[in-house]
Amino acid sequence: MPALITLENLTVKYGKTLALHDVSGALATGSLTAIAGPNGSGKSTMLKAIAGIVKPAGGRVRIAEQTGPIAYLPQTTSIRRDFPITVFQAVATGLYPSLGDFGAITAAHRQKISAALNEVGLDGFEKRQINHLSGGQFQRLLFARIIVQEARVILLDEPFTAVDAETTAKLIQILLQWHKEGRTIVCALHDLLLIKKYFPDSFVLAGKCLGRGHTHKMFEQKLLSFDLDMAELYPESEAPHPHGHDHPHDHAP
Ligand SMILES: Nc1ncnc2c1ncn2[C@@H]1O[C@H](COP(=O)(O)OP(=O)(O)OP(=O)(O)O)[C@@H](O)[C@H]1O
Ligand SMILES: [Mg+2]
């Protein structure tokens, strides 16, 4: 399969903080890829760079022209939930790029939103304010918002956080269905069991790319390991500063 998304020596900084350094690699059309790595390793940053939300300080992200719109599910911790909008309205925002003049929502759009809410198990929640949802229900809402976008490329940032086992299973089934339909999916997540079971390809990050390729190879090489400790992931000289920010020398090339 041809590369759909190509990272070429991608480097991203926030002020003086080097979040990603010199990451290269390609994501094939139709691939299902996990982005793994500890807190602060640059997973969200990589997704944001692909989505075009952060600009590279060096290198670039190349996206094949025929990709069409990219759907992006942000990490819940980065989303403000105190806007006074309902579940229905929040899912409808996923449709904005496809709405016609004056942004009118048609009967067909309503149908699409209802079907998406049904798919994630949020029937009957249409009128609920989003700040009155539980963490797991909010995560399902974000999935419904992705569903209505019908994008061929889907970026998910820790979509299973705060989600119980039953809901995770449900959301995984949706993800596998997208994969079957040939969509390209990139998903940041911590759960190694899920990565091992469902994600054929992985990127392992720690400020830079430690490894990428078939997930089983990442496990063979112990880049992904159930008994991994931080010392193995970060050689001593590269250990992240405990305070994280503004220590450019930690990651200096
Ligand atoms: N808006 C920002 N301003 C300054 N520094 C940031 C910003 N966002 C991220 N960083 C820093 O960039 C680095 C990478 O952060 P990123 O959010 O990509 O990590 P992550 O792997 O997604 O972590 P987590 O597992 O906690 O979600 C961290 O050192 C983080 O502190
Ligand atoms: Mg993150």
Q: What topology does this entry show?
A:
Layout (H helix, E strand, L loop, with lengths): L2 E12 L2 E12 L3 E5 L6 H9 L6 E6 L6 E4 L13 H6 L14 H13 L15 H15 L3 E5 L7 H16 L3 E5 L3 H7 L2 E5 L3 E6 H6 L9 H4 L20
Parallel strand pairs: 3-7, 3-8, 5-6, 6-7
Antiparallel strand pairs: 1-2, 1-4, 8-9
List keywords for this structure.
binds adenosine-5'-triphosphate; 253 residues; three-stranded antiparallel beta sheet; Rossmann fold; 9 strands; alpha/beta
Protein model, in words:
Strands 5-6-7-3-8-9 form a six-stranded mixed sheet, with helices on both faces. A three-stranded antiparallel sheet has the order 2-1-4, with helices on one face. By secondary structure, the chain is of the alpha/beta class. Residues 242-253 have low confidence and may be disordered. It has one domain (3-251): P-loop containing nucleotide triphosphate hydrolases (Rossmann fold), CATH 3.40.50. Helix content is 30%, strand content 24%. Bound molecules: adenosine-5'-triphosphate and magnesium ion. Magnesium ion binds next to helix 1.
List the secondary-structure elements in sequence, H or E. EEEHEEHHHEHEHEEHH
pLDDT < 50 stretches: 242-253
Number of domains: 1
Going by CATH, the architecture would be 3-Layer(aba) Sandwich
Q: Approximately what portion of the residues adopt beta-strand conformation?
A: 15-25%
Instruction: Tell me the overall shape.
Output: globular
The CATH top-level class label:
Alpha Beta
Largest sheet: 6 strands, mixed
**Radius of gyration of CA atoms, rounded to a whole number:** 19 Å
Structural class: alpha/beta
CATH topology-level name = Rossmann fold
Largest beta sheet: strand ordering: 5-6-7-3-8-9
> What is the residue-mean pLDDT, rounded to a whole number?
88
Tell me the span between the first and last alpha carbons.
33 Å
Q: Count every helix, treating DSSP H or I runs of 4 or more residues as helices.
A: 8
**CATH H level, superfamily name:** P-loop containing nucleotide triphosphate hydrolases
Helix content: 25-40%
Tally the beta strands: 9
